[in-house]
């Protein structure tokens, strides 16, 4: 039994992993960019967009909105749990392209960048969470369990931000 477990761990670790550990979401939502940015920079509202299955904790700090808004969060993806400080570090709003950065500070931190462009039907939204896969022996587990769950969570967050922003649409 122990030999089979060891063989499984080694074979999983030696399996070729995808090149990028990042989480990417690219979609269009029927909401204007300014309304999306409003939700993304107001952490008390943004918290409502994150599914409970992805989040263990989200405690909004001070200030609650705008550049410098912060929160203590714990993301729960498969067997991974990350306790981080989320801070809104960028909120560039322009007619042709808006960018919002959520920096997650810690030695295992990362940045989630939202790029939002107006389109005829609302907004084209690209979200990239820049992650690093863990080293062996957890690499294969990251790509088979954590990354897919994180991808599902991020795609759901985008749709939920759009729903929260919909009442803000004039």
Major sheet details: 7 strands, antiparallel
Percent of residues in beta strands? 35-45%
Question: Would you tell me the overall average pLDDT?
Answer: 89
N-to-C span: 63 Å
Q: Any idea how many domains?
A: 1
By CATH, the superfamily comes out as START domain
- Got a strand count? 7
SS-derived structural category: alpha+beta
Cross-sheet strand order for the largest sheet: 1-7-6-5-4-3-2
CATH domain class name: Alpha Beta
H/E series: HEHHEEEEEEH
Fraction in helix:
25-40%
Architecture (CATH level 2) name? 2-Layer Sandwich
The shape is globular
Please give the count of helices.
4
> From the alpha-carbon coordinates, what is the Rg to the nearest angstrom?
18 Å
Report the CATH topology name: Alpha-D-Glucose-1,6-Bisphosphate, Chain A, domain 4
Poorly predicted residue ranges: none
Salient structural properties:
globular; 7 strands; seven-stranded antiparallel β-sheet; Alpha-D-Glucose-1,6-Bisphosphate, Chain A, domain 4; 170 residues; alpha+beta
